[in-house]
Design goal:
CATH class of chain C: Mainly Beta
Number of domains of chain B: 1
CATH class of chain B: Mainly Beta
Number of strands of chain B: 8
Number of domains of chain C: 1
Chains: A mainly alpha (about 260), B mainly beta (about 110), C alpha+beta (about 150)
Oligomer: heterotrimer
CATH topology of chain C: Immunoglobulin-like
Distance between the termini of chain C: 29 Å
Radius of gyration of chain B: 16 Å
Shape of chain B: elongated
CATH architecture of chain B: Sandwich
Largest sheet of chain B: 5 strands, mixed
Strand order of the largest sheet of chain B: 2-8-7-4-5
Order of helices and strands of chain C: HHEEEEEEEEE
Number of helices of chain B: 0
CATH topology of chain B: Immunoglobulin-like
Number of helices of chain C: 2
CATH superfamily of chain B: Immunoglobulins
Number of strands of chain C: 9
Structural class of chain C: alpha+beta
CATH superfamily of chain C: SoxY domain
């Protein structure tokens, strides 16, 4: 990559993000009735790409996941279907409840982590590659079964401490630009950063096909992407901060309809 | 084997013009990008896409690196008789994929 | 000596290209004209018959929906033989060629293309009588604010 390109991009960032900090006042949570999916900010063409199953590239992963669901694997020689049956029934609404606090681990696990637990513990197979095609395909297939259903992460005695931890991360200023998630997504959502509208950061469509990535990606990948943008050190892959942040974001989006596999610019 | 998603109406009336939509998983690497190691990533694209309807060619496309990753192509055809549509993609590095879809015309 | 404006322009182009991670564009409006010439030869290229549908402002140049439709009865006597799409600022001017016959019934195709920069896209229809028709569209490509990695 050219040095000029780097310098220019850095300038854009600093100008854009410095603007963000000076625009708004103190972080204020978005009232429930004013919440809006990133879908609402997209062009009609990109919305059409998400809406039409025959045109949504994320459906390629859903199809792969459907095949993987039936594949026997591991020392136990079990497929997902051997335990869970027809995903169209058994997985309906499941992704809308994730991340969920695992009773054994006493901490939240996201959908991908839950699939990996099934794989290593029940199938007794080696874990799938993080952010790899197979794991994303299974996650997309499971998440797809909740399409249109309201996000159902609830605050209770089990989830409360982790939702609080996630909120604390969300509101914490970090990185060289000294920004928090809330600076962009609460205080300045709906405004623009360079040419792009700033969404409210409701993770309604994950795993989703991002045109920028030219592939499907998980919410953890998107969070890492944001951290890099804030010039913060991303958490290690699979670090508890991700699941806490994901849990907070899903709770914050409670009641909004699931869109997976979403499409975003 | 690449995953493909074909959308053909299951049934049509004779002479009806139907729309066919196709998606296939492929990176469509342009050959102009630089990888993390600083080296150019070599071109890897689907270059040709043909469709036959009961053996007769009804559509042919020549693709370039300017086609987006996971190529989407849609076109129309006249539903003549019941049978099979065969979709065939070929590309760099010996890439080849074939998919079929049935249609009932009555 | 490089003027300030030139430098700034270079920087902006650099930033734009960073999105796709590609080398500086090599195609030019002239290269596009040459590419079109290789398809149509010396035949005149007239405006009309072709509808080129591309969003005027795209959110990400990696995946830009393009639809081309050509007015034609699509009969054995009068049909669209091919549709070609060109661009002027990607590294190469050629985008896609599709071959059609009367069996297509309707000369309408859709695909998704990459656009390295704000530029003109041209669709050319090749008719069964040997005539060529075109439509063009200006597309503004915005830079995604949140790209993943700087590499």
């Amino acid at each position: 990559m050219s040095r000029q390109g780097l310098v220019a991009l850095a300038c854009l960032w600093i100008a854009g993000l410095a603007g963000l900090v000076s625009w708004g006042g103190q972080a204020a949570e978005i009232p429930l009735q004013d919440r809006q999916s990133g879908y609402q900010l997209m062009t009609p063409e990109t919305r059409a790409m998400q809406d039409d199953d025959a045109a949504n590239p994320g459906m390629l992963w859903v199809l792969d996941g459907e095949a993987l669901w039936q594949r026997k694997d591991g020392r136990a020689n079990l497929s997902c279907a051997d335990c869970h049956g027809d995903a169209r029934q058994s997985m309906k609404g499941v992704a809308a409840r994730y991340p969920a606090v695992d009773p054994g681990l006493q901490k939240p696990v996201d959908l991908e982590q839950r699939i990996e637990m099934c794989r290593t513990e029940k199938q007794q197979a080696p874990p799938l590659r993080a952010e790899g095609k197979d794991l994303l395909a299974l996650a997309a297939y499971v998440a797809r079964q909740s399409k249109g259903m309201p996000i159902a992460v609830v605050e209770d005695d089990h989830t409360r401490p982790f939702i609080s931890a996630g909120r604390e991360i969300y509101e914490r200023r970090q990185g060289q630009l000294n920004l928090s998630c809330a600076n962009c997504h609460d205080d300045n959502s709906g405004k623009r950063l360079a040419g792009s509208p700033i969404p409210q950061a409701h993770p309604t469509g994950y795993p989703l096909y991002r045109l920028e990535w030219q592939t499907l990606g998980s919410l953890q990948r998107r969070l890492r992407n944001c951290l890099v943008g804030m010039r913060a050190e991303p958490y290690a892959p699979g670090a508890p901060e991700y699941a806490e942040l994901e849990l907070y974001l899903m709770w914050r989006a409670r009641g909004m309809p699931m869109e997976a596999p979403g499409v975003r610019p | 084997m690449a995953r493909a998603l074909i959308n053909v109406p299951a049934t049509a009336k004779p002479g009806e013009i139907i729309e066919i939509k196709t998606l296939i998983s492929h990176p469509m690497e342009t050959g102009y990008r630089v990888g993390y190691d600083g080296a150019m990533i070599p071109r890897d694209i689907i270059a040709n896409f043909t469709v036959t309807y009961n053996g007769d060619e009804i559509f042919r496309a020549q693709l370039s690196p300017a086609i987006a990753a996971n190529p989407f192509v849609s076109f129309c055809t006249v539903a003549k008789e019941s049978g099979t549509l065969t979709f065939h993609w070929t590309g760099d590095n010996g890439f080849t994929a074939t998919e079929t879809a049935k249609i009932t015309v009555e | 000596m490089t003027g300030i404006d030139e430098t700034r322009r270079g920087l902006l182009i650099g930033a734009g290209l960073l999105v796709l991670g590609i080398k500086p564009a090599r195609a030019t409006p002239e290269a596009m004209k040459d590419a079109i010439r290789t398809v149509i030869g010396d035949a005149p290229l007239r405006e009309g018959k072709v509808t080129l549908d591309v969003p005027p402002l795209v959110e990400n140049g990696n995946t830009v929906p393009v639809t081309v439709a050509v007015e034609s009865p699509m009969t054995d006597a009068d049909y669209v033989r091919a549709i070609h799409v060109f661009n002027e600022k990607n590294p190469q001017p050629f985008v896609i060629t599709v071959r059609l016959t009367p069996r297509n019934g309707r000369a309408r195709i859709a695909t998704r293309m990459k656009l390295a920069d704000t530029q003109t896209v041209i669709a050319v229809a090749e008719m069964s009588d040997g005539s060529f028709w075109k439509a063009s569209a200006e597309v503004i490509v915005t830079i995604a604010a949140c790209i993943e990695d700087i590499n």
